[in-house]
């Protein structure tokens, strides 16, 4: 009997996904902590399992080496930077993801952070709770230029909502086609023209610290930065300096290089908003992501074709 290990905390409540897997005769074991599993924690558990449904846990070469029966790793989300795809390919393990399941959730959080920055909502709310009637002057989204880096599914949903707020939207994405009233331009133009710069691109060696001291210096004085994608896209030290000097008026991030970001100096700045990687954490997004991750596992274990295989090319090369 095939055994499946599921590490996302949400999977314990993923009724539809669990019923689907168990109805096919598979054993599903749940294993999670109150934090993403470390490589060591996952390595100790992975032996004997045919499939792994993975959350935000670290699945590096050590986990792959400890996996003595693993056939498929299925992420319950769009990000896969914590999975060593090359090591998995060498052991002929299929790596999969669930793109598009969190699109609306992340786009809506991005807009929420934009509104919060515009009206300084966290600080005003805290002051009101303390009995201080602090009526700070905000600004309106209407008429502002939103710069989007990464015009994929989430970037397009953000653009749609920004356009509905009468914003001008410009974007950089070398792979994107024209979308609605969005102006496609080059990266430097987006960085230099944006009143609000929002990141929606994958974390790769090329995009690591895409937003750094040099790019921050090219942004408008008093501009804002929002990152609901991946923490590694932003040089956090450089961002902290830009916020302290008021080069940027504010920033909001839902993803950090180290999570949780304990001791991160950004957390002590009044013009910075932090959220704990909650972009995909809506009831709707979580249910869709877990169900897609389960369907991905079934397709591989039962020999069906699937469009969400990440290492199709690498596996083909490794088998030659």
In summary, what is this structure?
The protein is about 35% helix and about 15% strand. The chain has about 325 residues and is an alpha/beta fold. Helix 5 crosses helix 7 (about 155-165).
Structural description of this entry:
With 320 residues, this protein is α/β, with parallel strands linked by helices. The chain has 2 domains: 3-101 and 282-318, Rossmann fold; 103-274, NAD(P)-binding Rossmann-like Domain (Rossmann fold). It contains 12 helices and 12 strands. It has helices spanning 15-23, 39-45, 61-66, 85-90, 103-119, 121-129, 153-164, 187-193, 213-218, 236-244, 283-301, 312-318; strands at 3-6, 27-30, 51-54, 72-75, 94-96, 145-149, 168-172, 183-184, 196-199, 223-227, 248-253, 272-274. It has a 7-stranded parallel sheet, sandwiched between helices. The chain has a 5-stranded parallel sheet with strand order 2-1-3-4-5. β10, α10 and β11 form a beta-alpha-beta unit. α1 (15-23) packs parallel to α11 (283-301) and α5 crosses α7 (153-164). The longest helix is centred in the C-terminal third of the chain and has 19 residues, at 283-301.
Weakly predicted, low-confidence segments: 316-320
Q: Element order, helices and strands?
A: EHEHEHEHEHHEHEEHEHEHEEHH
Helix/strand class: alpha/beta
Rounded to an integer, what's the Rg over CA atoms?
21 Å
Strand order of the largest sheet: 8-7-6-9-10-11-12
What is the secondary structure topology, with strand pairs?
Elements: E1 3-6, H1 15-23, E2 27-30, H2 39-45, E3 51-54, H3 61-66, E4 72-75, H4 85-90, E5 94-96, H5 103-119, H6 121-129, E6 145-149, H7 153-164, E7 168-172, E8 183-184, H8 187-193, E9 196-199, H9 213-218, E10 223-227, H10 236-244, E11 248-253, E12 272-274, H11 283-301, H12 312-318
Parallel strand pairs: 1-2, 1-3, 3-4, 4-5, 6-7, 6-9, 7-8, 9-10, 10-11, 11-12
Helix pairs in contact: 1-11, 5-7
